[in-house]
Give the backbone structure.
Amino acid sequence: MDKDLLETWLNAIAAGELTPAEALEKLADLPYQDLGFAKVDFHRKLRTGNAEVIYCPGKKPEQVAAIFQALAGQTRNVMATRANLRIYRKVKAVLSDACYFDQARIIALIRDQSRTAGKIGVISAGTADQRIAEEAAITAEILGSAVCRIYDVGVAGIHRLFSQKAVIDSCRVLIVVAGMEGALASVVGGLVDKPIIAVPTSVGYGANFKGLAPLLSMLNACASGITVVNIDNGFGAGVAAHRINLLGE
Amino acid sequence: MDKDLLETWLNAIAAGELTPAEALEKLADLPYQDLGFAKVDFHRKLRTGNAEVIYCPGKKPEQVAAIFQALAGQTRNVMATRANLRIYRKVKAVLSDACYFDQARIIALIRDQSRTAGKIGVISAGTADQRIAEEAAITAEILGSAVCRIYDVGVAGIHRLFSQKAVIDSCRVLIVVAGMEGALASVVGGLVDKPIIAVPTSVGYGANFKGLAPLLSMLNACASGITVVNIDNGFGAGVAAHRINLLGE
Amino acid sequence: MDKDLLETWLNAIAAGELTPAEALEKLADLPYQDLGFAKVDFHRKLRTGNAEVIYCPGKKPEQVAAIFQALAGQTRNVMATRANLRIYRKVKAVLSDACYFDQARIIALIRDQSRTAGKIGVISAGTADQRIAEEAAITAEILGSAVCRIYDVGVAGIHRLFSQKAVIDSCRVLIVVAGMEGALASVVGGLVDKPIIAVPTSVGYGANFKGLAPLLSMLNACASGITVVNIDNGFGAGVAAHRINLLGE
Amino acid sequence: MDKDLLETWLNAIAAGELTPAEALEKLADLPYQDLGFAKVDFHRKLRTGNAEVIYCPGKKPEQVAAIFQALAGQTRNVMATRANLRIYRKVKAVLSDACYFDQARIIALIRDQSRTAGKIGVISAGTADQRIAEEAAITAEILGSAVCRIYDVGVAGIHRLFSQKAVIDSCRVLIVVAGMEGALASVVGGLVDKPIIAVPTSVGYGANFKGLAPLLSMLNACASGITVVNIDNGFGAGVAAHRINLLGE
Amino acid sequence: MDKDLLETWLNAIAAGELTPAEALEKLADLPYQDLGFAKVDFHRKLRTGNAEVIYCPGKKPEQVAAIFQALAGQTRNVMATRANLRIYRKVKAVLSDACYFDQARIIALIRDQSRTAGKIGVISAGTADQRIAEEAAITAEILGSAVCRIYDVGVAGIHRLFSQKAVIDSCRVLIVVAGMEGALASVVGGLVDKPIIAVPTSVGYGANFKGLAPLLSMLNACASGITVVNIDNGFGAGVAAHRINLLGE
Amino acid sequence: MDKDLLETWLNAIAAGELTPAEALEKLADLPYQDLGFAKVDFHRKLRTGNAEVIYCPGKKPEQVAAIFQALAGQTRNVMATRANLRIYRKVKAVLSDACYFDQARIIALIRDQSRTAGKIGVISAGTADQRIAEEAAITAEILGSAVCRIYDVGVAGIHRLFSQKAVIDSCRVLIVVAGMEGALASVVGGLVDKPIIAVPTSVGYGANFKGLAPLLSMLNACASGITVVNIDNGFGAGVAAHRINLLGE
Amino acid sequence: MDKDLLETWLNAIAAGELTPAEALEKLADLPYQDLGFAKVDFHRKLRTGNAEVIYCPGKKPEQVAAIFQALAGQTRNVMATRANLRIYRKVKAVLSDACYFDQARIIALIRDQSRTAGKIGVISAGTADQRIAEEAAITAEILGSAVCRIYDVGVAGIHRLFSQKAVIDSCRVLIVVAGMEGALASVVGGLVDKPIIAVPTSVGYGANFKGLAPLLSMLNACASGITVVNIDNGFGAGVAAHRINLLGE
Amino acid sequence: MDKDLLETWLNAIAAGELTPAEALEKLADLPYQDLGFAKVDFHRKLRTGNAEVIYCPGKKPEQVAAIFQALAGQTRNVMATRANLRIYRKVKAVLSDACYFDQARIIALIRDQSRTAGKIGVISAGTADQRIAEEAAITAEILGSAVCRIYDVGVAGIHRLFSQKAVIDSCRVLIVVAGMEGALASVVGGLVDKPIIAVPTSVGYGANFKGLAPLLSMLNACASGITVVNIDNGFGAGVAAHRINLLGE
């Protein structure tokens, strides 16, 4: 139930077109959550900047395309995560403006290309971590944040990271993406005083246990100010960083 | 090596009191990190707002007292985490202004009581989670953030949480502290579009595995925008929230 | 060994047709379990309402078809769980009345379509959890329970759940199906005073560990009255809910 | 927000005493959850039969005593779980009618001693599992269910279990409490067609991993119709069984 | 119900002292498991050689003493495992012949001291594993097996093990007790062709995880013919070895 | 180093043909393990009865065939475990007498078909556990033990197990194969006083964790006398049971 | 920033061509890491002997080929690990001298074939462990170490290992590669006083948990002097052994 | 059997005092391992430099004192690890020269104070890790290595580590001791080309899981050349580093 409808009813009572009893009945009939629904939806839009999001796994290509098309009618930017080429082709067939970010596995319709003044720095360790870093970066960009990519600066060649210190310092919030042992988050945390979101990736083998090693590593980082998202959850990091970034606008 | 010393040397060269060769040797001898040291230290102060922090476990009461006293000479606010009464008494003996936050297990010397305009909301589930919530809240306050406590609003009585919706909406960033199954983070994440830092606590038994259950639960929260810190890490959540809060000042 | 036979023997002793020693030997020889066997079989039919069940994994399509056909001669309703289309075709070839529930992966022969007066509410979180929800729902229906489906009411959009409060209240027992962090069980547990069976699903990734996260979450649910079945065990939840539902008839 | 207040406002609009705009503002200001609050509270009492419950761990004896006294003013039966003698003495001091169930670790005030016609059967394996069995039994009794205790019938001496078959059959719902390998739940599940709630206990050592072994065992029970609660969660099993038992009254 | 009683009844029927109907009633009244009980008990005695066993944890000293005394009236040898001195004193007070094996933590009443011809070899790695080795050895001896102890022959000094080859070869079945990495079981398995029961102990630290390391090691032993019992389960190993040893008598 | 050679040398010293110093050097140079080598090989044949064994995983079909052929020249029975049809065809090409046990995944050349008088009972729970049961049974048979198969007697239909009590009692040693929750081992352990080797299988899903549930269950079995092998290790159980069985011949 | 540039500036100050203030600014502007960069690069070459290394997983064949070609212009030996034939063909197309080590899964360009005087002994347990042993051996050889392979000397046939004692004694450092239970590392550690690097492999099944069993086993080895690398990390062991081996040159 | 005895016998044969047959018998009677024993013992002394080691846990103070005294008669340096003051007092009572290293928990008798020319660098992260670092350092020193301590250089203040670069470069082999997330090992591995032994400590809380986090982190370190020992195993790291250090002497 939206505010306009409520206003219409209240005006109708004031105008004598609706008796209080009738209005009460109408209000009682309405599931009270409807009001909440509208609110949440409104919040929802704010929350993800200016985009609606579809999570692809477990949905058929046609389903994704249909939801994508529906959302495209309601909001300016739409994105689908964990998508593949097959899904993209279905979406493309109904929305020719949709584009596909291969590494990030994101299908997007980007009508609003405005960006924040403050930047989110996305730092990644190895080449293999890059697809998750891109998921975070592209997500943040679609939501409206400016993003600065600082890739391939793993701890094994720590000088490469340090040579990017000035660039890192110019960002408002940082996303650190690393697999293997995930030490990069700790090192970045020891260098700067920014909010840092650490993303463990499933890159590694053996006692890495599909990302458990960097996950535990990042949760135990002795540098304070680091928070962590799920293994390979570039999307979640992008959303969280965007929300934080917005606070500085 | 600080900037003043470097300046002195450069002036000495200009004045002919030092040959370039001698200066080069001096500079080469200096561990180049000294410069980094100063820088990092400076950052460090910024990073933790205006406080220096001591982590008590593994240190003897006298050691904590000595470090506390030393830091009190260098900075305005000093805090010691995971402290107990025995340690407090040792600190109190050398710094009579120190106070002890019992639930938060924090010893603090708070000379700078200024607070941010924006508020950090600290939401906790059960009574037993409160000590970790307090660790987060007190940490953020000592660092200089205004804090709003919303306690005892667990999912089992979900109406209590909803009745605080307006208060929650008035905060800039949220810390959600919960043990048991940690569902509170997901529910709060479904209600608001703020940056949310989830703190799993070790409250629970059996298949809770000392906080593993809420940790996994929070890392898998389907509501986006949630980031997570280590089990019982109220301090880390307080620092991270403070940094995010500062962005909005 | 049935009572009649025992009576016959005792009479034979009384009649002097059987010596006590011979009777003793006969009694010792009888596998006493035979009595149990009959009983259990009888119980078995009661237990699963009016259906016999085949678990497909590890059985060849022809084997399933043969068992299915055999059971169809003994009982009114027969079902095979975790079935695929290939198995269905084999069953269909010998029992043309068999039907296949695609999402639930259940092959069924339903001759008795009577339903209970009381309803089982099957609540599911995300789209991907639906196939397990359907396994629970179809199972309960084949056993004879009326089922009410309340799907796609995840915690991230909590208003959608609340708008179904009246429907949920009209059910006698609830099955809550959720993957990711499984918080839905806790939230439903906080809203109603029904018996609740929580089904964690393997939907998720990373630190979800194939359903471990929602399993632990549900086992630790702070709302009381919740019991849990194995990850993805929609069938087990359907059977348990049906048994509980029968108590109210 | 209650209905009367809403009616007053609508009448005031109709009477011209309140403009629609003012009313809209008032309505927006009202925390809509207030209505929910009352509802949930009402539900809450229903949910736990006729008792309010306090969970002791993490609360000081005085706190428990104070809450206990407060609840005793609102409801007929009150209970505190995981309590010890020290807490009991504090409660006893303010409520001389309170009694303490030593094995079950429950403090209770039982003014309403009515019991259901149907019985909950509480079956336990070893002597060491008995305290959790008692927690379940006492909980169910305080809530108002009749309880039938069938103790010390572990699988190692399986004949003892079978000799209680008739007693087990006379119950409406069963709680099976077992540590070690937890096989008792499977065996009971193979014998009867009742709803069964399995409670793994932390009794055992080594590869038992504090109850993990029976927990996994019970979740994987091949006998269908079994649902599981957290390790050592006798209370939760008691509540769930009572709710199920009520359906048959 | 024992065989004698049954015989008495059957004779009474034959003698006309009992009508078949009366007998049937008597038999029906008897829990049929009683027969089973007797049987199992009889088996039980055989099974554990000639001893009854009490598991102490979770029982009070007085309880143990009472059970011990009762069993002492029924069987020749009685033993209580995981006992401590306090329990022993209680038992000693009622049974002055009871003795206490300190390292093995076993209280025993040994009236039948006969031993098998074949020997069980108990091999242990380090000094700290000895208490579990003793639990196995004493158990086997009380049950009636001859035992040969080969202690302190860990893999780090592998020559000590090899120097005992002849002694090891003279045993019929082997128990290998080892903590740390548990490699001793594999090495013994590579040397002899006997049935080997491996007992992992909780001796170790860090990534030993309280016996998990040797448990996994022993389960994966590449030498075939090795079977494993629970961590620290010297008693279970003793019973199993005794049963195997009896086959060769 | 064999005894003859040693004797030769000692005689040479006595004959003055070899100085003590030279002999000492020779002795020191000899790898003392050579003696061990021969011994162990001899033991090896004894150990596996009368068969040599090849473990296929990680070996190419041609490699298996070549090793198989080589062993066929040295011993009467040869077997290859975890084999598939492709490997079998390669072996069959070089040894036309080789046969393939499909369910057991064993290729065998069986020239010696003699069997022990005593029987090994192989008991399995569900249909899906049968392939591991067959691996155990076929292994034991190739080694020379008589085997009695008792399949499909899971705990969910416990009467089927009990009806086989007499058959079970006629065996000398038992192998119990079960997946899901593995309760069958405990129940068999509660019925008989034989040595029991429990084999957990990876049959199950969700919180079964690929056999972890029955593995833990069996290790914690409260019935004593049970020992356990690795998940799905039918071969190991067969070897161990055969060795135990031999003791009774 | 290199030393020459710094010298130029200091001279310019002395010459009055640069004011101290300007110099200070220049120094502050320079990323101090540049110096570190050069150093680390130099170290890097030393570190891996005389080879550059590419880790293939997560890189496309063309990417590997391009990096390979680039490195071939800078250093004498280049290697790519975890490579397959497809990648090799791409590399071969641009560098015809490249060769492929099939078992080790390494592509290499070896222009410098010099070897150390001291040898690294690579000991492996089973046939299936050999590919990881080869990864270690080939890595060490490309880096410039002489390697001595001692394969197929598992603990189940311990005499084979002992017969190689002299060869093992002739090595300077040992790499022990073993899957299953990994006991080989302990046994070798009990025989020699060399630095030993243990490599657990993922060879095994069931409770091996993909290498967890030998990993824990090796970490808990009671023989001292053993250090461990990640599961299947032959490369890491090769590098570490080479570094240790160089110390003895 | 020592070499002297063997020589005596061979001489006796040569002298005709012993017939070859008698000698053969004597030799055959001797456990052949005795030779091995001597050898291993000899190796053992080499292996641990010039010290014998006693592991205290599981031994009584008197036992440690007795073993200590015995070893003091055979070798120059003796050490007991994981010792406490109570044990020390017992040792001190019999060996007044024994000293106690409080932090390292080592009792030592150091008669040979010679040190290697090359140094072992022991680097530790936090204050709480220092006791394990000391265990490693003291162990290496007692064995005869020169040790250089570089403490309190955690990743959170990374400049402190870098300022010690020259000192680190002067060492031959490095031991890196760190708890929390263990990132220090990776960072040191990125800076130098030395053999590095990483020691995870149990310092941390929550998702640290008593050292599991740094253990996994170190095993997955992306910088190559790092090997790992068990959690808190300072002693093992000291022994391994000493052996490596000796290669460079």
In short: The interface with chain H takes residues 126-128, 157-160, 162-163, 165-166, 203, 205-208 of chain E (CB under 8 Å).
